Amino acid sequence: PEIVQEVTDIGVTLQFDLMDELFNSTMRVPDGLMLERYDKYMHSDGVSLTDKPSEVVPYVTISSIPSIVNANEKLVIPASMKNMTKYKNETVFRWEMLKGIIDLDAYPDKLATPRNNTNLVVRKDVLAPGQEYRFRLIATNTISGQSGYDEVEVLANGAPSSGTCTVFPGVGYAAETEFKLTCQGWEDDGVDPVEYEFRYYDPDSGLQIPMVARSRANEVAV
Question: Least crowded by CB within 10 Å, which of 20, 28, 63, 159?
Fold first, then answer.
């Protein structure tokens, strides 16, 4: 058959001149998350036509996250794909490292999610302070073979530094003396203010037990 393609502002119109009969079909580019192209296929009766997707290009988006993250906290990188419900059974995902060193196959030791998950969660204390990391999420449609990707880059912030902590008085009696703990001069390269958590060491259990909840207050009396 002779095929004439006409581009209009509402989509693409395909005209099929088949056996002296004209078959028209309009394909609209969806407003959603996928770009779809359609071919026309003829049924065995040689007359009726049906639509069948011939090329689907996944459109993935990594959600906005802070550009500076704490190395001693877990890193959560959420992502999504347009028309996920429609195409999830024919789409595979894979995370890649473009900058920095993280073994993305080290699940569940270093990752809380496998590398073929839509979202990526890196466990705390895996990132190296001062290191830049660039992640790429690739989505591939298993039917069309087409892929789409998105990337995000973060800097792992180190622990606060240059500060001191003091206890006054230096000597006292349990359940009688009030001790004041003060921290001063601590600096951090992150965007968030420095927070403090005061703990005491329990020799029986070997644990460090928080005395107060973590906050921006740099002084506590106990």
Answer: 20
Contact (Cβ atoms closer than 8 angstroms) between residue 34 and residue 146: no
**37 in helix, strand or coil?**
strand
CA dihedral sign of residues 159, 163, 169, 171? positive
Question: Which pair of structure tokens corresponds to residue 163?
Answer: 């500060």
Dist CA 71 CA 132 (whole Å): 11
End-to-end CA distance of the chain: 88
Distance, in Å, from the CA atom of 147 to the CA atom of 167, rounded to the nearest integer, reads: 59
- What pLDDT score does 161 carry? 84
pLDDT of residue 153: 96
* Alpha helices (H) along the chain: 84-87
Q: Are strands 75-77 and 68-70 parallel, antiparallel or unpaired?
A: unpaired
- Which 3 state secondary structure label does DSSP give 16? strand
What was the pLDDT predicted at 2? 41
- Cα 62 to Cα 139: distance, rounded to the nearest angstrom: 12
Choice between 174 and 59, residue whose per-residue pLDDT is larger: 59
| C-alpha to C-alpha distance for 201 and 215, rounded to whole angstroms | 19
Q: Tell me: the pLDDT tens digits for 136-192?
A: 999 999 988 889 999 999 999 877 888 999 999 989 888 889 999 999 999 887 767
User: Which tokens in the block code for residue 71?
Assistant: 């190395």
The pLDDT, as a whole number, for residue 55 is: 60
Which residue, among 126, 183, 132, 134, has the nearest Cα to 160 in the 3D structure? 183
Is 90 exceeded by the pLDDT of residue 21?
no
